[in-house]
Amino acid sequence: MTRFEQPKVAIVGAGAVGSAWTTMIVAAGWSVSLYDPDSTVLQESVAGLPDQVQRLIDLDRAHPRLSEQGLSALKEGRSLLQAVAEADWIIEAAGGDLPAKQRLLEQIEQVGRMAAVITSLSSRQPTSALAGRLRRPERLLAIHSQMPVQFIPVVEIVPGPSTDLACVEDVRFWLSLLGRTPIVVKKEITGDATRRIRGAVLRECAQLVLDGVLDAEDVDRLLADGLALRYASAGVFGSLLLGSSGNIDAVISEALAEFEDIWQDLSTWQRLPIEDQKRLIRLLEKAYPEATPAARAARDRRLQHLLVARTIETIEPDLQ
Predict the structure, then answer these.
(1) How far apart are CA 273 and CA 279, in angstroms?
(2) What is the pLDDT of residues 213-232, one digit of tens each?
(3) In the chain, at which end, N or C, are there fewer CB atoms within 10 A of the end residue's CB?
(4) Residue 105 — φ and ψ, nearest 5°?
């Protein structure tokens, strides 16, 4: 096949992440073969897919005809060989530590097509380490997504030092066809780029709550009704530059100077002490007693509204 044809997809791992990716790809009308070594997990995932796809249809995130086409084409792999043998794109979505991932990827390579592109949904292990037992590391790359993947379109693509650039372009194109926003990470780092940003934000938010500066609910409102809206409209750097009439040199210099005192006062801990962890958990349990299905459904509706708003007008300002 060529890059511009719809690939046959195999997903290995039917847990929460694998099921979410299966839902998204099936809803696009693509052919998917889903496999999990735990038959109970696999059966539960397959049984729940029609309802998950229907939720996307109800929220205008999927077309009924394409969804029906994808559900009709869905295959339940009875073995790893059966699941991946004909796949052009194999998505490894299983859990496990690095040795377990390496063994699974090695097994996938052994039974998959030589021309297949293998992507590992792994945010903790670098691509070069994941490829440690592969004979063809040039066919492997990592991808990082955020849950719920059906509503958060950005996907980081992380090639390893041996990854064939043609594979990168294949995956980038396929993700674009699925309505994703692919971002190619230029070098391997600890964790994915999104988790690094989230980690920095989480640490300061946790400290504000622990220090009694803000309640947990107010931290979330501060972000959801403030910074998140600003960043959703134009990103971190874009919103900074669009918020000023000066040239880029002046805006950045002023912003860097403005935050110097704050940066000196920010939290720098790399591991939160156990007692503080327990205290933070108690405060969050008080603020959010239970993450109910209704609360998750409401979150998904809000995400859909944000996505619709972003598609109305894509801001690509001339910042020069």
Answers:
(1) 10
(2) 999 999 999 999 999 888 88
(3) C
(4) -65, -35
Last residue of a domain, one of 163, 184, 205: 184
DSSP letter for 139, please: G
Beta strand 89-92 with 181-184: parallel, antiparallel or unpaired? unpaired
Is 126 part of a structural domain of the chain? yes
- Beta strands at 140-145 and 154-159: parallel, antiparallel or unpaired: antiparallel
Measured at the alpha carbon of residue 303, what is the angle toward residues 300 and 306, in degrees to the nearest 5?
Answer: 155
**Residues 143, 206 within the same domain:** no
Q: Is the pLDDT of residue 251 over 80?
A: yes
The whole-angstrom distance between residue 297's C-alpha and the CA centroid of its chain comes to: 18
Task: Give the domain extent around 232.
Answer: 195-312
Reported as a single tens digit per residue, the pLDDT across 282-304 is 999 988 877 778 888 888 888 88
Asked whether residue 4 is domain-assigned, the answer is: no
pTM greater than 0.90: no
Q: Which of 160, 156, 171, 172 is nearest to 130 (CA)?
A: 160
Shared domain for 30 and 151, answered yes or no, is: yes
Same domain, 30 and 149: yes
Indicate whether 149 and 238 sit together in one domain: no
What separation in angstroms does the CA of 115 have from each of 106, 166, 244?
15, 11, 50
For residues 139 and 219, membership in a common domain is answered with no
Per residue in 125-157, pLDDT (tens digit) is 899 999 999 999 999 999 999 988 988 899 999
Gap between the Cα atoms of 268 and 289, Å rounded: 29
Please provide the DSSP assignment of 158-200 as one string.
Answer: EE-TT--HHHHHHHHHHHHHTT-EEEE-SS--SS-HHHHHHHH
**Greater model confidence, 84 or 124:** 84
CA–CA distance, 92 with 122 (Å, rounded to integer): 9
* Whether residue 228 is found in the same domain as residue 171: no
The residue count for the chain: 320
Q: Is the dihedral of CA 295, 301, 305, 311 positive or negative?
A: positive
